Amino acid sequence: MYLSLRFRAFAAGAALLAASAIAQAQQALPNVMILATGGTIAGAGASAVNSATYAAAKVGVEKLIAGLPELSKVANVRGEQVFQVASESMTNANLLALAKRVSQLAKQPDVDGIVITHGTDTVEETAYFLTLTVRTDKPIVMVASMRPGTALSADGALNLFDAVSVAGSKDARSKGVLLTMNDSIESGRDVSKNVNIKPSAFSSQWGSLGMVVEGRNYWFRAPVKRHTVNSEFDIDKIDALPPVEIAYGYEGVSATAIDALARSGIKALIHGGPGNGSVADRIVPRLQAARAEGILVIRASRVPDGFVIRNAEQPDDKYDWVVAHDLRPQKARILAMVALTKTSDTKEMQRIFWEY
Ligand code: DAS
Q1: For residue 134, which of 95, 99, 84, 108 has the smallest C-alpha distance?
Q2: Closest Cα to residue 120, out of 96, 99, 148?
Q3: Does residue 1 surpass a pLDDT of 70?
Q4: pLDDT, tens digit, 9 for 90 and up, residues 78-96
């Protein structure tokens, strides 16, 4: 009797010790907030072989977290469903709402890092917008997946585990908004989707910032363009984004699109030309007319890599045009919208395109 009492007292003491050790271990882990917006990472297909045919934006954040108990090894996570959309359908209103929520959470002392689950189609645009406007040095890590969780060799689970691990890492601070996909840690500014059906879809012509393997980060470079705490833009002071649209250049292009856009009330037009941002001779006067109407003309290139040289293909100084540097048209549009919340001066706009 006496022994069993002592044993039970010992067992109770051991259980208490173990419980407090677990509690201490959990307390030592970083607090990571997961904001869910939709996309394939929240997608579901009819069968395991449906790696490309499925419905995006179906699975809620709580189910994503419940399906990945390994997350508790690297962070204390909380989830919030900001919206549930396929990212090709994102709007400027979605972008503003998401960025404002990220900014609010980043100010909270009980948040060490933020993960945003997102569709792959436009994650590069959201990542750039956040890196330009959210004033925090805490890790903000975007994550997506090319296959739904229901598919064979789905990539979302490891991508999400990596994102939470990076978001909880002190060495991921002050690197701008990041994207973890396929073991790589990419710069939110530089990364684009370059393949539309493979898990290795995302890359940057300037290379990854590093890799994350089994919860450990391996860094090989750091961003040099202005971002987050070093940005002159602040989402807390932005409540609307001016209309900016894109028109592409290609063989046989007519002025129909450009003329229609110029009449639609846009504040800037991104021209995604071939080569080094070339503009067809019949289109030059249409862009000059748009400029004369007060619309900013920004010469970008439809060629994925390289960067547009000012005054090379076109006399940008003479025409009072801006060049988009290495930014693809869709990213140039993001920067133009953000910059227009502060200035419409061409020289200031060009400085901003050099610096961000
Ligand atoms: N439609 C795509 C999107 O939501 C699905 C995906 O790849 O995430 O971006």
Answers
A1: 99
A2: 148
A3: no
A4: 999 999 999 999 999 999 9
Question: Closest Cα to residue 152, out of 56, 67, 45?
Answer: 45
Q: Domain total for the chain? A: 2
- In sequence order, which ranges of the chain are alpha helices (DSSP H)? 2-28, 61-66, 92-106, 123-133, 156-167, 256-262, 284-292, 316-319, 329-340, 346-355
Are residues 250 and 212 both part of a single domain?
Answer: no
What is the pTM for the complete model shown?
Answer: 0.93
For ligand 1, atom 1, which residue shows the shortest CA distance? 86
Q: Check: CB of residue 244 under 8 Å from CB of residue 255.
A: no
Q: Are 100 and 65 contained in the same domain?
A: yes
Angstrom distance (rounded) from CA 37 to CA 114:
13
Ligand 1 pocket test, candidate residues 50, 94, 120, most atoms within 8 A of CB:
120
Answer yes or no: is the C-beta of 88 below 6 A from any ligand 1 atom: yes
Q: Phi, psi (5° rounding) for residue 143?
A: -150, 145
Residue 15 confidence (pLDDT) above 90: no
First and final C-alpha spacing in the chain = 75
The CA distance from 17 to 244, in Å, is 60
Beta bridge partners of 96: none
Domain boundary among 176, 206, 230: 230
Mutate to test the pocket of ligand 1, among 41, 53, 85, 88 (most ligand atoms within 8 A of CB): 88
User: Which residues lie closer than 8 Å to 288 by C-beta, 6 or more apart?
Assistant: 319
